UniProtKB/TrEMBL annotation:
The organism of origin for this protein: Phytophthora fragariaefolia
Domain AAA+ ATPase, chain residue ranges per copy: 255-401, 606-761
Protein name: Unnamed protein product
GO molecular function, one term: ATP hydrolysis activity
One of the record's GO cellular component terms: cytoplasm
InterPro entries: AAA+_ATPase (IPR003593), ATPase_dyneun-rel_AAA (IPR011704), P-loop_NTPase (IPR027417), VWA8 (IPR039891)
Domain of life: Eukaryota
């Protein structure tokens, strides 16, 4: 076999024959790039029969080079014998029922016929999943068997999609048949106690309800290296549902399983993971995943040291494995099943080979290797082997939205968000499904966090949220899937309403439109939101353009060291580096003043991280810089660029997050987001990026062109803002100004041009924008082009407006 570096692997007998019979020396053979293959080298290939399983049949020339062996499934008696050794305290009849459930499920799988069967094949019920059920029952006597089976084998329509409903019902019938008559107890977690802060083992206490109502104590359960906490998480309301699922997660953790928290957007998955880490004393390593991530990206990536040398750098997952942290795989549903399969060995065997040539093994295996090395006196085997910390655990976070699953099932050729849940990935985790938060739970959370918010406003907001959810679930329109009002968005709206309770009813409708970004969705979405708000009797607000016509615009002023815009005020800062405060060339117009007032209201409400979104040229940068100038806030700037290999826009991703100084690169990567290369004394040194500087000094970071960032960069930003303090984006849509505001702006740029000409220019651009909205043309004519025309007329008054429009308009390229 020829290697990439030019060397050739030669059969041991042929190599030895060249040495002995043909008289070649080792140096000669080495100079010819010949490498002797060890005579004990063997290849064992593993695979599934195709069909019935998906995949490709073996190529005959490849198949002929292997001696095939058909490994049959173990008999029920063999499985029962093994389970008795795994779970010695579980009654034999209970173990027999577990084996019966697995055999019945796999029988359904085996009789599936692609030509005649409807729906997808029943996934395979793996023996490792069966053994985990027995381990949980061994530690938690009389635990609910049906619940445990559903956690290790999540074949449910609300997880896998409506097309798996037949499999879901079949599983329910099997479980009900075999668990009928079994007594069960429900366990609730009381707390974890460590003998010392440095200890990596804890004593757990549970309360049992049902069979004997006893207290259960488990000793020497792996826990994190940080101090575990029993107090509540800040700004987190633990509902009964959260407490129940947390107890089940800790049960599966005690039995040695990695976990997967799955649920719809806004159901509290990330919060529940943080609560688990809080209770068990785990430091977390957030690893945000994306669709184009390769198998190698999951383990290690190439980086550069201070001398410019390339090196392998551990991913957050491997770093967590070495240090006993909790690895949080956020967005595991985005990964392809092939990429996720690389982790199967790490999850099930706690062993993995890395790209740098090293290997991670379980603690016991490492101790055996260490003992053998000490005995033989040869420590070379330890150079490339490291132990996985015994406390290491993985929690994956996946999305399973019923509305999305239903829409993808109804769209031919569209991949479901549950496509990653195949037999292999199901056997890797214990699954914990979070149902969609109910209206009662939403009310409990909102009233607990914002008790001073007027009851009428709270009831109206919660009623709208419930109606919107039902409208999405009952409608077949794919457009409505974009109307996402998650729990974090709901609380963000509440925070803003609570800061100005006297005008909360009046602000409710525009805030919800902003939160849902209806300005950038289809007209049917906007009409649906208004219709649902009308059903809730929400006050109808006056359009901004009409409001500006009938009242005086808000004044911007400074009073007593505070910036005041209308009736909203905020302290002006005293910058230590005044040169970092932006000084934009800016003219105040009513529309932009109104936008800045809304932004300042969010700052006053405690929402200091915002997303300004709008068409190009509407003044997003000007607004941000002007507000920072008025507040005397230091600014750092970073401009993102799209990776040429990826063309995905990320507006929806940014709707759920935030935190953000001048830095621009040709291609934004994770490394360039945090480090900047500089040339010092003829060598490259890496310095903190504007993002890092802003985080260290408390400056405001402006992230320009955020929608053009590669998805892995967005994941880093998401991790930065959610890790620890859960800072969220408040999205503000920036529209083109109304006619009077635009006229005011053009007059400021072109004071000598007749007002009538500028007004006609404003109306012409307004008509162009209407054509964009109804799809007649595609180029989004913005205020930027209108300003360019006005500035041209100011300098060259003799040029006709028609000729100027031809020069300044890109219509010949875009329309």
């Amino acid at each position: 076999m020829t290697l990439d570096d030019g060397r050739f692997l030669m059969k041991a007998e042929s190599y030895d024959d060249a040495l002995v019979k043909q008289g070649y020396s080792t140096d000669v053979l080495k100079a010819q790039n010949l490498v002797r293959v060890h005579p004990d080298f063997r290849v064992i290939a593993l695979g599934l029969p195709v069909p019935p399983y998906p995949g490709r049949t073996l190529d005959p020339p490849l198949r002929s080079r292997f001696q095939a062996r058909n490994v049959k499934s173990s008999s029920p008696g063999s499985q029962l014998e093994e389970l008795v050794g795994v779970a010695t305290s579980v009654p034999l009849p209970t173990l027999e029922k577990l084996v019966g459930i697995r055999e019945a499920v796999n029988t359904i799988e085996s009789i599936y016929d692609i030509g005649t069967s409807s729906g997808p094949r029943m996934p395979h019920f793996d023996y490792l999943s069966l053994a985990h059920c027995a381990k949980v029952l061994d530690k938690f006597p009389n635990a609910n068997v049906a619940s445990i089976v559903q956690r290790v084998f999540p074949v449910r329509a609300n997880i896998l999609g409506v097309n798996t409903e037949s499999n879901s019902k079949a599983l329910d019938r099997i479980v009900a048949k075999y668990t009928n008559g079994l007594e069960s107890s429900k366990y609730f977690f009381d707390g974890a106690v460590k003998s010392s802060p440095e200890d990596v083992k804890a004593t757990l206490t549970f309360r049992a309800f049902g069979h004997d109502n006893a207290k259960l104590v488990l000793y020497d359960v792996p826990c994190g290296t940080a101090r575990n906490q029993t107090n509540a998480l800040p700004d987190f309301v633990e509902t009964d549902s959260h407490s129940e699922i947390l107890a089940e997660m800790i049960q599966d953790h005690s039995a040695g399983s990695d976990l997967c928290v799955i649920g719809a957007k806004g159901s509290g998955k990330s919060s529940l993971v943080r609560l688990f880490a809080h209770r068990m004393g785990y430091a977390t390593e957030l690893f945000s995943l994306f669709k184009d991530m390769t198998a190698r990206d999951l383990l290690q990536r190439r980086s550069t040291d201070s001398h410019g040398n390339t090196q392998w750098e551990d991913s957050p997952l491997i770093h967590a494995a070495r240090n006993g942290h909790l690895a949080v795989l956020d967005g595991v549903h985005r990964l392809g099943s092939d990429s996720l399969g690389i982790l199967q060995r790490l999850i099930q065997d706690r062993e993995i080979d890395l790209a740098d040539g090293s290997k991670l093994v379980p603690q016991k295996t490492y101790e055996t290797i260490l003992a053998d090395a000490n005995k033989s006196g040869d420590a070379s085997a330890l150079n490339r082997v490291s132990a996985i910390h015994p406390s290491f655990r993985i929690i994956a976070i996946a999305e399973a939205d019923p509305a999305t699953l239903r829409a993808t099932a109804a769209t031919p050729g569209k991949e479901s968000t549950a496509a990653w849940l195949i037999s292999d990935s199901i056997s890797m985790f214990s699954f914990h499904h979070l149902p969609i938060i109910t209206s009662g739970q939403s009310e409990e959370v909102v009233r607990h966090l914002y008790p001073d918010l007027p009851d009428e406003t709270t009831s109206m907001l919660l009623s709208f949220s419930e109606k919107l959810r039902h409208a999405k679930e009952s409608s077949a329109s794919a457009d409505y899937l974009a109307l996402s009002l998650s729990t974090r968005q709901l609380l963000r709206v509440c925070r803003r309403l609570d800061a100005f309770p006297e005008q909360s009813l009046k602000d409710l409708r525009p805030l919800l439109h902003d939160a849902l970004l209806t300005q950038f969705l289809s007209s049917s979405c906007s009409r649906l939101v208004d219709a649902l708000l009308d059903e809730c009797n929400a006050p109808t607000t006056i359009p901004a353009s009409n409001m500006l016509e009938h009242q005086e615009p808000d004044a911007i002023r400074e009073e007593g060291g505070r910036l005041c815009i209308g009736d909203v005020s905020y302290p002006i800062q005293n910058p230590s580096n005044p040169e970092l405060v932006p000084q934009p060339h800016y003219f105040d117009i009513p529309k932009h003043t109104q936008c800045m007032k809304a932004m300042l209201q969010d700052v006053v409400a405690g929402q200091k991280h915002m997303l300004l979104i709008g068409n190009q040229g509407v003044g997003k940068n000007k607004l941000a810089d002007r507000l920072l100038q008025l507040l005397q806030q230091e600014r750092e700037y970073i401009q993102l660029h799209r990776d040429v290999r990826k063309r995905k826009r990320l507006t929806n991703a940014f709707k759920e997050m935030s935190n953000w100084s001048y830095f621009s690169v040709l291609q934004t990567t994770v490394q360039t987001l945090t480090l900047v290369p500089t040339l010092v004394d003829g060598r490259i040194e890496w310095e903190d990026s504007p993002l890092v500087r802003a985080a260290k000094t408390g400056r405001t970071l402006i992230v320009d062109e955020a929608d053009k960032a590669p998805l892995e960069v967005v994941c880093v930003l998401k991790g930065l803002i959610e890790d620890g303090e859960m800072l969220l984006v408040r999205a503000i849509a920036i529209d083109n100004p109304d006619e009077e505001s635009e006229l005011s702006l053009l007059t400021a740029y072109a004071p000598s041009v007749e007002v009538d000409i500028l007004r006609r220019l404003c109306r012409a651009f307004a008509e162009l924008r209407e054509l964009v909205e109804n799809g007649t043309i595609t180029y989004p004519y913005s205020t930027r082009e209108a300003v360019a025309v006005a500035k041209h007329l100011e300098k060259f008054p003799n040029d006709g407006i028609a000729s100027v429009l031809v020069r300044e308009s890109p219509k010949k390229y875009c329309c």
